[in-house]
Design brief:
With 292 residues, the protein is α/β, with parallel strands linked by helices. The protein has two domains: 3-45 and 168-291, HAD superfamily/HAD-like (Rossmann fold, 3-Layer(aba) Sandwich), CATH 3.40.50; 49-165, Calcium-transporting ATPase, cytoplasmic domain N (3-Layer(aba) Sandwich). 42% of the residues lie in helices and 24% in strands. Helix 1 (3-15) packs antiparallel against helix 12 (275-291). The termini are close together. Bound molecules: adenosine-5'-diphosphate and magnesium ion. Adenosine-5'-diphosphate binds at residues 39-40, 72, 75, 77, 79-80, 104-108, 119-121, 148, 150, 190-192, 215, 238, 240. Belongs to the cation transport ATPase (P-type) (TC 3.A.3) family. Type IB subfamily.
């Protein structure tokens, strides 16, 4: 690889909004066999909105929403924001929170007026041994629609099933099919529920899905994909993507994502548009063909 052609290649990429942090990244990208995407904020907009709110028997919707939103107001997770916004739109006021704890990859727990409120993934409620009373069918139906289910418990009792929906990013489906046409295996790696992940993957034409991974599990997913297919390019935006971005042969961060993700990456997609990856791979192949 001549320094000049690498400079030309990375310069051309920069014009397309793809920032290579080093020349070696160009070669690593050419050699990738798998492109693994984080879901939330990478394949989707990362701005979920609350779409469904189903209470268990004996619970009143606005009362449950008030408690859930009060606790979520203390969390910075995009899901938390959607619940707080929904409360605002319904004119449901929030209550002071006495105790708050966020469990990464699971959800949150807090005390409001002497009541203990838990909001999060199904596995979050499982940790407390709280069984879901009814609504299991509704949960699978919502997942099938590509929505992410969340569960609310109050004082150890299942109180509500909530769904949030995060629109697929414009151009994501086109990028996935272009990558497949380039001969790459495309995978999705997410902490979200399996059904919701499959719903989104189906719309994008992604067959390889690793769902319900805990923070840290994304690194294992990269290793597993490498063992099965070869060198991995990982694309992500979040704090919990940073270890996987570092583990992959090449890490690509969404430029609008968190600082830690950007710092852990070899390549930065400035606008967040996924078409940048397709152009960057095309470019890496053209440049490396001329010089190796
Ligand atoms: P990802 O961004 O890949 O979905 P996270 O590790 O951030 O991964 O979250 C995994 C899952 O944990 C979420 O899909 C959600 O079910 C649950 N979760 C995490 N934080 C919260 C929160 N503040 N409120 C409700 N659920 C949460
Ligand atoms: Mg993300």
């Amino acid at each position: 690889a001549t320094p000049t052609s690498i400079m030309v290649g990375t310069g051309r990429a920069a014009e397309l909004g793809v920032l290579f942090r080093n020349g070696a990244a160009l070669q690593a990208l050419r050699d990738a066999k798998v492109v693994a995407f984080d879901k939330t904020g990478t394949l989707t907009d990362g701005r979920p909105t609350l779409t469904d709110f189903l209470t268990a028997a004996g619970f009143e919707p606005d009362a449950v929403l008030r408690l859930a939103a009060s606790v979520e107001a203390r969390s910075e997770h995009p899901i938390a924001r959607s619940i707080v916004e929904a409360a605002g739109e319904r004119g449901v006021s929030l209550l002071p929170v006495d105790r708050f704890e966020a469990v990464p990859g699971h959800g949150v727990e807090g005390s409001v007026g002497g009541q203990t409120i838990i909001v999060g993934a199904r596995r979050h409620l499982d940790r407390y041994g709280i069984a879901m009373a009814g609504l299991a069918e509704a949960a699978s139906r919502l997942e099938g629609e590509g929505k992410s289910p969340l569960y609310v418990a109050i004082d150890g009792r299942f109180a509500a099933l909530v769904a949030v929906s995060d629109p697929i990013k414009a151009g994501a489906a086109e990028a996935v099919s272009a990558l497949k046409a380039q001969g790459l295996v495309v995978a999705m790696v997410t902490g979200d529920a399996r059904g919701a992940a499959s719903g989104v993957a189906a719309r994008l034409g992604i067959a390889e899905i690793v769902a319900e991974v805990l923070p840290g599990g994304k690194v294992e997913a990269v290793r597993d994909l490498r063992a099965r297919f070869g060198p991995v390019a990982f694309v992500g935006d979040g704090i919990n993507d940073a270890p996987a971005l570092a583990e992959a042969e090449i890490g690509l961060a969404i430029g609008t994502g968190t600082d830690i993700a950007v710092e852990s990456a070899d390549v930065v997609l400035m606008s967040g548009a996924l078409s940048g990856i397709v152009s960057a791979i095309g470019l890496s192949r053209a440049v490396m063909r001329n010089i190796t």
